[in-house]
């Protein structure tokens, strides 16, 4: 009895040869995300008491082209739907990010270098002579009384004259102005003006331009984290009525529906727009190149007011210039027909005319199918010199040809940008997550669908795949941060990979390789629909994807979103067994027919490290009587043997070196050139997070085994994914180095009777020794010295041989930590 226990313990140790601590990679993430409550339910849906604030805006703004300033009068109607009474409100003043006194604010890079371009120096010193930031002329209540305010950088506290009770609304009247920034002068400019000296004209991109309500919600209270340029926006939904006064010859592209086309558009333009509403296959030119060029020369000093209304949007932006060409077409979605429109200066030709509106259409179609139909009447893409930036119904998109020519790469970049920025209408413009806090929530989900749009609508173009994230994920762990890092805490060099690409690849893995398209698409759609026009948090996304699909994804979230671990699976061994029947009487208690299984004891470890040595023989004994129990009649040893006869059994050992648990795809290439794939779910890592063995039965013989052959899991090291291995130093070399001769090895070969009563067999194949504990698969030994060996796969175990001088018999000592067993060779 004692013997059996010791033996079992010893082998139990063997099977769990893992020296690394259990990390609980499959434990629920409940303690890592905010707990559910009445506002956010445990299913991931908005809770029964969910609320959010609302802000309607009426704005009259005047664009002064001569001085590059904008002046506005706005009325905010703020609805307090929260259960709280509010004595003050916070208003966002993003234009203050470039204000002189806020010098250290939003300064992304303050390092000096030996050599620096003037432009970089300009970013570094910021536009020192430029009086950026708001002048707030007045803040009044509905009765015209002044309200006290206090400005803290990009946030303004409005100390209400009367407390705003829960369930009530209040009006704020704010008069303001600010000088529009030259967007080439400030790093990370999402808006501002671009000046064209050739024809002395300007394109104005006007965004985060009017004082806007900060978000007040159940998770943050006031989201009044300062604008530091990287972390974008958190905004409330509302209806807008906006009047924009610009030079008479300007054309305005804006969020919302144009309310007064007859006073701002020519009869011809209106006629063409009507045509465009019925043109579903190609855009109609509303303003042609010739007309735009004529416009450029006009330089009217008179003004004209464009009126736009927008319903249920979280922001409002517009572009204005006399340089704009304009094309438009209709895009029919199941529940909405949208006007897709592009505005661009002639500098964008010809590629903008060819690609922009088409890209809008593709984005509208793919995103609508994946989430919900685009709900707004227009979707606009405006050309800019660089970067892309999104707002409701309108986006500013970089990408211009040089002398009318654009490289393939630049064209793909430009179209990708348009798709991406149009896609932001869903995330975060409608599924309105908090960008200032979690950049990945909108950028990650949006890039995922943007890449899907590119892959589906532009086959042959580059798009993100799991391979794309490998360089980032195999990077220096001292620099890497988890995806679950607040927006402004990420490095400028890293945020693209960490907040855009890594979540994208994570969602691709879930969709293509973990959940499958059907389950994933349904769950993703559920999330989008649950949270449209609302403010979701990460937990709401995590919970919904599980809730809508009956899939436990906590292991995936834990690893992919909360750590900087990477995927690195190693195919450390493949053992080959072959079954054939023969009669045998060795150690055969009942004289039953025995089956021998050939195991590749040698080939897994031999010099060539391949299958060329063939399988090796181990015995398959008859099931002992005590194992039968009440199932005696159900087990037929002979039938089992017959079924296995001639088949190939492969035991694979896979190690998890990178830390992330993932499903494992195994490709078998057979000697006849055919192949087959098996996929193991991530659950195989539940009990041992570092190493697993799995056994497969194949009719055909295998010549090569590969892990993750289709590169689905962003494995950072593909060199350890195949068997036979190609290792630089083989164990054969180690043997040679240790100068152990064949004849010395042969003195160790034999059967040893161990003192607890079990047997150990040592045998040799070429220059390798193998140890076989009764009934267990063979393990290879590799030498530390001429008499001491380590056991492969059992890092703490040691095998020592010694010749007993009195009896002249070979003895063996197996030790592992503080356990050890001695034995004597008996044959
Ligand atoms: Zn984006």
UniProtKB/TrEMBL annotation:
It comes from the Bacteria. Keywords: Aminopeptidase, Hydrolase, Protease, Signal. InterPro entries: Peptidase_M1_aminopeptidases, Peptidase_M1_dom, Peptidase_M4/M1_CTD_sf. GO terms for cellular component: cytoplasm; extracellular space; membrane. GO terms for biological process: peptide catabolic process. GO terms for molecular function: metalloaminopeptidase activity; peptide binding; zinc ion binding. Residues 1-17 form the signal peptide. Pfam families: Peptidase_M1. SUPFAM superfamilies: Metalloproteases ('zincins'), catalytic domain (SSF55486). Residues 405-560 form the Peptidase M1 membrane alanine aminopeptidase domain. PANTHER family: PROTEASE M1 ZINC METALLOPROTEASE, PUROMYCIN-SENSITIVE AMINOPEPTIDASE-RELATED. This is Aminopeptidase. The lineage of its organism: Bacteria, Pseudomonadati, Bacteroidota, Flavobacteriia, Flavobacteriales.
């Amino acid at each position: 009895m004692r013997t059996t226990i010791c033996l079992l313990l010893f082998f139990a140790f063997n099977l769990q040869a893992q020296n690394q601590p259990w990390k609980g990679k499959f434990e629920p993430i409940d303690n890592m995300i905010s707990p559910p409550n009445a506002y956010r339910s445990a299913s991931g849906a908005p809770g029964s008491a969910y609320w959010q604030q609302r802000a309607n805006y009426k704005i009259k703004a005047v664009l002064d082209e001569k001085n590059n300033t904008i002046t506005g009068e706005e009325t905010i109607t703020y609805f307090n739907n929260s259960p709280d009474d509010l004595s003050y409100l916070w208003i966002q003043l993003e234009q203050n990010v470039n204000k002189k006194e806020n010098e250290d604010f939003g300064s992304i890079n303050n390092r000096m270098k030996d050599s620096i371009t003037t432009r970089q120096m300009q970013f570094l010193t910021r536009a020192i002579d430029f009086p950026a930031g708001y002048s707030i002329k007045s803040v009044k209540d509905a009765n015209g009384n002044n309200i006290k305010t206090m400005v803290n950088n990009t946030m303004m506290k409005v100390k209400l004259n009367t407390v705003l009770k829960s369930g009530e609304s209040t009006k704020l009247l704010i008069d303001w102005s600010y000088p529009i920034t030259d967007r080439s002068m400030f790093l990370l400019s999402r808006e501002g003006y671009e000046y064209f000296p050739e024809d002395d004209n300007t394109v104005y991109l006007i965004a985060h331009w009017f004082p806007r309500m900060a978000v007040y919600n159940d998770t943050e209270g006031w989201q009044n984290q300062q604008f530091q340029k990287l972390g974008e926006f958190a905004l409330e939904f509302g209806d807008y009525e906006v009047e924009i006064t610009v030079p008479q010859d300007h054309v305005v592209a804006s969020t919302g529906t144009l309310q007064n086309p007859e006073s701002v558009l020519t009869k011809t333009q209106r006629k063409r727009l009507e045509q465009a509403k019925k043109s579903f296959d190609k855009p109609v030119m509303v303003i042609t190149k010739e007309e735009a060029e004529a416009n450029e020369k006009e330089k009217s000093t008179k003004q004209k007011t464009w009126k736009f209304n927008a319903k249920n949007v979280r922001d409002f932006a517009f572009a204005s210039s006399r340089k704009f060409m304009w094309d438009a077409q209709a895009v029919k979605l199941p529940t909405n027909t949208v006007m897709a429109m592009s505005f661009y200066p002639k500098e964008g030709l010809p590629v903008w005319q060819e690609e922009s509106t088409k890209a809008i259409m593709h984005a509208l179609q793919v995103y609508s199918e994946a989430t919900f139909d685009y709900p707004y009447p227009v979707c606009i893409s405006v050309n800019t010199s660089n970067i892309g930036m999104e707002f409701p119904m309108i986006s500013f998109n970089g990408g211009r040809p040089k002398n009318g020519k654009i490289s393939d790469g630049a064209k793909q970049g430009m179209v990708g940008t348009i798709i991406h920025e149009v896609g932001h209408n869903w995330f975060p413009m409608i599924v309105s997550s908090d960008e200032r806090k979690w950049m990945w929530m909108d950028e990650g989900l949006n890039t995922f669908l943007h890449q899907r749009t590119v892959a589906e609508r532009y086959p042959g173009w580059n798009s993100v795949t799991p391979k794309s994230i490998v360089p980032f994920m195999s990077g220096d762990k001292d620099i890497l941060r988890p995806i679950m890092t607040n927006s402004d805490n990420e490095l400028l060099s890293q945020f693209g990979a960490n907040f855009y690409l890594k979540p994208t690849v994570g969602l691709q893995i879930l969709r293509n390789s973990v959940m499958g398209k059907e389950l994933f698409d349904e769950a993703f759609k559920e999330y989008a629909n649950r949270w449209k026009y609302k403010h979701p948090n990460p937990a709401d996304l995590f919970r919904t994807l599980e809730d809508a699909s009956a899939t436990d994804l906590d292991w995936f979230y834990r690893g992919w979103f909360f750590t900087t671990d990477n995927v690195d699976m190693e195919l450390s061994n493949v053992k080959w067994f072959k079954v054939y029947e023969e009669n045998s009487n060795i150690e055969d208690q009942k004289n039953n027919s025995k089956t021998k299984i050939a195991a590749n004891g040698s080939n897994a470890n031999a010099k060539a490290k391949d299958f060329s040595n063939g399988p090796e023989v181990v015995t398959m004994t008859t099931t002992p009587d005590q194992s039968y129990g009440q199932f005696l009649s159900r087990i037929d040893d002979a039938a089992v043997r017959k079924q296995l006869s001639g088949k190939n059994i492969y035991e694979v050992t896979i190690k998890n070196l990178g830390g992330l648990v993932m499903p494992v795809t195994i490709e078998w290439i057979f000697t006849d050139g055919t192949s087959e794939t098996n996929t193991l779910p991530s659950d195989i890592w539940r009990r041992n997070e570092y190493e697993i063995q799995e056994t497969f039965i194949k009719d055909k013989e295998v010549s090569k085994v590969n892990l993750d052959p289709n590169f689905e899991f962003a494995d950072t090291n593909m060199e350890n994914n195949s068997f036979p291995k190609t290792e630089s130093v083989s164990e054969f070399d180690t043997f040679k180095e240790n100068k152990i001769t064949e004849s010395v090895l042969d003195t160790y070969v034999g059967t040893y009777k161990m003192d607890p009563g079990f047997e150990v067999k040592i045998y040799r194949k070429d220059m390798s020794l193998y140890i076989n504990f009764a009934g267990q698969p063979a393990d290879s030994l590799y030498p530390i010295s001429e008499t001491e060996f380590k056991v492969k796969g059992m890092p703490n175990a040691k095998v020592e041989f010694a010749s007993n001088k009195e009896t002249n018999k070979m003895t063996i000592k197996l030790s592992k930590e503080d356990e050890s067993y001695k034995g004597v060779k008996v044959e």
